[in-house]
Design a protein that fits this description.
Elements lengths: L3 E6 L5 H9 L5 E10 L2 E6 L5 E3 L10 E4 L2 E4 H15 L6 E5 L3 H4 L5 H9 L5 E7 L3 H8 L5 E3 L10
Parallel strand pairs: 1-8, 1-9, 2-7, 7-8
Antiparallel strand pairs: 2-3, 3-4, 5-6
Helix pairs in contact: 2-4
Length: 162
């Protein structure tokens, strides 16, 4: 049976950095990280290859946008990340798929929502590790129907998950 775990913590606690540190070279682990580049700019980063691209889109990107509070993200950047997650999820070597992060967009059925639903609904897919801010954990568990998901903190994160 597929295991779904949640890595939770406060904003700026270092969840993404910890994931990269622990899983970047672990066979069977793959996924998308959300890394802060500078100021309010964020990048999507493939866990094992390190390939990254701006969540805000190319310099002349004109939309459509996904908005969360004061942040605007490129819908095309999310589509690219979601496509990568789906391709990776069905690769036979993928045992753990990491999705950083699941939050307000997904709760509005945007962002990674469609990719997550597809992976969650297919029993043949890999185990999941979702990054969720502390204040949204219960809402995410209820929304996605994963009430028994194990919740981990950065200090308890290790390769034992595989």
């Amino acid at each position: 049976m597929k295991k779904i775990r949640i890595l939770s913590g406060a904003k700026g606690q270092g969840k993404s950095s910890r994931l990269k540190e622990v899983f970047a070279d672990v066979p069977g682990a793959e996924g998308i990280l959300t890394l802060r580049r500078e100021g309010d700019l964020r990048d999507f980063c493939k866990l094992t290859s390190g390939e990254s691209w701006s969540m805000q889109g190319a310099e002349n990107y004109a939309g459509p946008w996904l908005e969360v509070g004061r942040f605007r993200f490129s819908a095309a950047a999310f589509d690219r990340a979601s496509q990568y997650l789906l391709e990776t999820a069905w690769h036979p070597d993928t045992k753990l798929l990491i999705v950083d992060e699941v939050g307000p967009l997904e709760l509005r059925k945007e962002g990674f929502y469609n990719a997550l639903k597809e992976v969650m609904e297919n029993p043949a897919g890999p185990d999941l590790l979702l990054v969720v801010r502390s204040e949204l954990v219960e809402e995410v568990k209820q929304f996605f129907g994963i009430p028994d998901a194990e919740v981990l903190g950065c200090d308890s994160l290790g390769t034992r998950i595989l």
